[in-house]
Amino acid sequence: MAAAQAFALETRRLCMSFGALTVAENIDFRLAAGARHALIGPNGAGKTTFINMLTGRLAPSSGAVLLGGADITALAQSARVKRGLGRTFQINTLFRELSVLDNVALGVAERLGVAGRFWRAASAYREVRDEALALLGSLGLAADAGQRVLDLPYGKQRLVEIAIALGLKPSVLLLDEPAAGVPSLESARILEVLDRLPAEIAILIIEHDMELVFRFARRITVLVQGQVLCEGTPAEISADRRVREVYLGEGHG
Amino acid sequence: MFGDSGAAIGYGGSARLRPLEVLPWVLAAVVFFFAPNYLPLGAYILIMILFALSLELILGYGGIVTLGHAAYFGFGAYVAGILAVRVSGDPLLGLAAAALAAGLLGLATGAVILRTHALALLMLTLAITSIVFEIASQWTSVTGGSDGMHSVPILPILGSFKFDMFGKTAYLYCLLVLFLCWWLVRTIVHSPFGMALAGTRENDVRMHAIGAPVYRRQLIAYTISAALAGVAGALLTHTTQFVGLSVLTFELSGEVLVMLVLGGIRRIYGAFVGPVVFLVARDYLAKQSPEYWTLGIGLLLIFIVMFARGGILGLMDSLRRRLVRKVS
Amino acid sequence: MEAFFSSLVSILFHGLAFGAILYVISVGLSVTMGLMGFVNLAHGVFAMAGGYLMISAMQKLGLAWLPALLLACAAVALASMLLERLLYARLYGAGELEQVLFTIGLIFVAVALARLAYGTGPQSAPLPDYMKGQTELFGRTFPSYRVVVIASSAVLIAVLWIGLERTRWGAMVRAAVDNRAMAQSIGIDTGRLFTYTFALGSGLAALGGALGADLLAMTPTYPFEHLVYFLIVVAIGGLGTLRGPFVGALLIGIGDTACKYWMPQFGAFFVYAATMALLLWRPQGLLGRAH
Questions:
Q1: Where are the domains of chain A?
Q2: Alpha-carbon distance C83 to C89, whole Å?
Q3: How many domains are there within chain B?
Q4: Which of C39, C98, C106 comes nearest B122 by C-beta?
Q5: Which of B15, B62, B87, B196 is buried deepest, with most CB atoms within 10 A?
Q6: B97 confidence band (pLDDT: 50, 70, 90)
Q7: Residue C89 forms contact with B (CB below 8 Å)
Q8: Would the pLDDT of A2 be above 70?
Q9: Which residues, in sequence order, are CB contacts of B328 under 8 Å at separation 6+?
């Protein structure tokens, strides 16, 4: 029973307080396998805090996080990654002086368990390189593989950000504002990539760009002041009066 | 990856030995045959290259800013000296003991300081050096205190190669040890482990986010680095037959840092170029006026930080890139 | 028992004097490190400059002790503003390694200049008559010089603390230490704030160096020799506060004096060991903020 009904990612009554300040209150959240789910909410709603609790960077004050039905609340970040939880960062968090290929290869090597080896040269691990190159190819970055990542335009760096996460073959992928700061010319590329992400990965995307959200998401959760305001399909959410009040101000027709 | 005299490190590169990499050893041989008067200085340079190489591993590749690497160098030097005086002056035994001792010290201290960051970590590296210094300075019966240990009895290597007064044996001895250690460092740097280390330096947060055991890897690198520094210290004791407090000073940590930065941090060969340039220049210039030497080094350091972060090799690289652009 | 109590009072007194000097010198370091996030290893250079300039002012310009001291501090504060604008400011965003390298370079330059100008031996500043000899307090005699050090430091500290709590400048510093980006967004000119605060910190260091020239001798290697202690005071107290280094300086001042008196064969060993233990338990320092 448990395996069939377990969600890819789930939180139960997740709470976080810093002293007197509560940033997350009783968040019940479910991400189904293969989901395309968006988390939206005004600034300061606690979205990034939520993501940090999911990934293990932040320990919640109370509540539980479950990955594939298993309780991971006590697990460290790296352990959660090994179980298939991947994420991207809102601000590019890349290995700046390394090449695009190495950026992705580092993650692939970790997953394959060869990253700790020191006797053979990295370049001898063909399987790592080939997999990284293939991944870059699928994102249209194959030509940039040898470039230093900091020499790339911002939009392409954003793609590398996603590539690194994909190299871990996650079952759940948390995307923190993947299109943030990207000029509109380049963001089309990112949208394409998001559309073509493997169907079996459960994806949670935090975004402010409503166009992207409505195009991409099949379900949306609205977070306001650390609490879930409502959850539903894009149509339900856009019709919800409370959401309109929060986002668009009262009185907007 | 780029730099390193063109040697391509990384998953997309190649670990094969590039022709330019033979150059340092050729030069070393040239010095041996054609500049026999400079062999003592040459041996000292080789020792400093090894010391710089050890720092390169943890600072240039690991990204851990430490001002306390002299602690391991000095510890190795003293272990070698004390061993020679009290047990046996066999140099190979001394090397092994120094590597082991310094490595253990590195493991113990590293386990503790790698849990901290930035200022606290820097402070702790200074504190560790200070503690080792104080112990060496106060434990006069064992270490000779501020006088140090003179005329440390070093036996011939493998029973047959005596340390002659021209420094020939010393030079070749240091050269061979440096060669082996260089091979080790080069292998590590080219390996997935080395890449992961570079990743930790570049972006610690991301390394955690891809599931890497960051602390464990840093600790391993730190231990190896400490052991190598200890070997360098032992070489100094063996070749000069003397150990003194100068091997444990903050000044020495600062000097090797300057040498590394001068040559080019993050490049194995920066650890070669830096000490050679620094020590040869010091040999010529500092004799005239040590104050102007210190002044010059200070200004050079400021200059490098402001304008030439990649050191000498970095400058050569950007020069090469500019020439390539002109040609094409 | 009487002897023990007597030596205890003596240790406390001398430790207090030492701690007072450490504080006056290190407080600037703590504030600027907390404010600018800059690892300024060269802070001791300003203390050294204060001491040497005071000596020069007395010898070359014939000034009395107090005017010479004030002149030296003003000169160092002004010079530090120049340094800050021209050099330090370029490295605020740079990595820790660059900052460490730059400040080490600065130390080398300063040490070389000091050697060239003053020779390698220690220099001393002749004290005014009212500071030589002994003072009677509470039925015991203490060296007048150290009494003056403690008393003037206490006044200085009081002025500083009130200044930080009550003035607008103080409020801005506290805001910017707390959250630089936020402070900028509410209109605080952090550039100017940094420069003035840096000048104040360096001026205080110069004051501490000059005032304490008889406690921490003026030699060209001053910045190297005492660097570890200044950093320890700041690190164990916690960055960015006034009270942090106060606690740190008292602990180190009294602790170091006590250890060197009762266990001279161990030297400074316990100070370093205690620092290590404390930093491992609380890396942010006793009064610092956890990251």
A1: 2-248
A2: 9
A3: 1
A4: C39
A5: B196
A6: very high
A7: no
A8: no
A9: none
